[in-house]
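We were asked to recover a plausible sequence for a given structure. The inputs and outputs are reproduced exactly as logged, with field labels preserved.

PROBLEM: sequence recovery
POSITIONS: 356
GIVEN STRUCTURE:
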């Protein structure tokens, strides 16, 4: 799994377009001309800017909108390539923290300060987690703000104001933490401030109601910080363990996240992105509602473009490598390199050479 928005943003400018010599089509903007890898989509003669412009479904498309189309074509190709490389199951674990039956009789008098869960992520690389939702078990009604801190920042990385209207309710959160930001690792704290709170959590005293689920690569424990009443990161030395219930039951998903690995090794993907963008360009050309004014889409041309995409290996005919077979080969090569990188990400070794 990876974050498509972050990956496309970071890989923007890796592959670009050449400006046509034809002054009537010299309309590629500065951003689309960027190519840090040296790969260009329209180096393939079938992916000319002229063809792409003339076969837009809307004949009156502006230069600005056409450049948006060009950038979106590359963004789509980036995501397509990354999906092809990372095509194995990414989910590691998912569960509610508490899954057993709970009584709704006794409530807990909370201490004054911050109460919540400390969340620790293992040292395994490429691990991410998401708090998809939270179940809330409180008596009476009221409003509080749920906060998620990381020890790298003084302010919350996520927050949500929640109004309690029933004694058991669900709130969708989608608090996602991956390894592509400066908040990764360290420790996380999910909880709320109790000062002025009008709601009280139900106690988890019934049989095994207080037994926590175990998560692969994550550990959680209840904590409180006495007297901490501001929405800022507290002094870690003030943190204490807490035995009583706090009314929160997070639903947590743990998964592999390769966003940072992609971003840090973007050059590995450049050739594949170029090939995929060329395939997408030619496919778009074939699917156009309009004919190309420079060379009409005859059956012969359609066959030739299809050969350019898929290749031709029949005996007695001109051999054409094909963009898609080349892309498959490039994807296989990237996977081999990624396997080496993942091993390095997970097993950092130091080698010392000695001279005799």
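RECOVERED SEQUENCE:
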């Amino acid at each position: 799994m990876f974050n498509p928005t972050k990956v496309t943003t970071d890989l923007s400018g890796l592959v670009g377009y050449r400006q046509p010599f034809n002054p009537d089509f010299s309309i590629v903007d500065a951003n689309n001309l960027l190519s840090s890898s040296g790969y260009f989509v329209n180096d393939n003669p079938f992916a000319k800017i002229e063809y792409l412009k003339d076969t837009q479904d809307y004949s009156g498309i502006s230069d600005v909108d056409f450049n948006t189309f060009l950038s979106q074509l590359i963004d789509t190709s980036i995501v397509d390539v990354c999906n092809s490389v990372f095509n194995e199951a990414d989910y590691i674990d998912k569960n509610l923290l508490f899954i057993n039956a709970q009584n709704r009789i006794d409530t807990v008098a909370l201490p004054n300060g911050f109460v919540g869960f400390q969340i620790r992520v293992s040292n395994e690389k490429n691990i991410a987690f998401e708090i998809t939702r939270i179940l809330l078990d409180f008596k009476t009604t009221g409003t509080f703000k749920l906060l998620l801190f990381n020890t790298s920042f003084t302010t919350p990385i996520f927050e949500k104001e929640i109004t309690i209207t029933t004694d058991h309710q669900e709130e969708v959160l989608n608090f996602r933490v991956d390894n592509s930001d400066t908040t990764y690792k360290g420790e996380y704290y999910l909880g709320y401030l109790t000062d002025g709170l009008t709601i009280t959590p139900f106690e988890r005293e019934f049989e095994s109601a207080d037994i926590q689920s175990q998560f692969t690569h994550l550990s959680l424990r209840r904590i409180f910080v006495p007297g901490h009443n501001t929405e800022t990161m507290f002094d870690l030395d003030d943190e204490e363990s807490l035995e009583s219930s706090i009314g929160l039951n997070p639903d947590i998903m743990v998964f592999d996240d390769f966003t940072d690995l992609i971003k840090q090794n973007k050059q590995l993907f450049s050739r594949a992105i170029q090939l995929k963008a060329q395939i997408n360009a030619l496919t778009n050309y074939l699917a156009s509602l309009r004919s190309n004014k420079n060379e009409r889409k005859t059956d012969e041309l359609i066959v030739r473009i299809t050969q350019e995409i898929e290749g031709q290996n029949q005996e007695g005919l001109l051999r054409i490598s094909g963009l898609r077979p080349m892309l498959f080969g490039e994807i296989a090569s990237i996977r081999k390199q990624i396997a080496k990188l993942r091993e390095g990400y997970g097993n950092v070794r130091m080698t010392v050479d000695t001279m005799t």
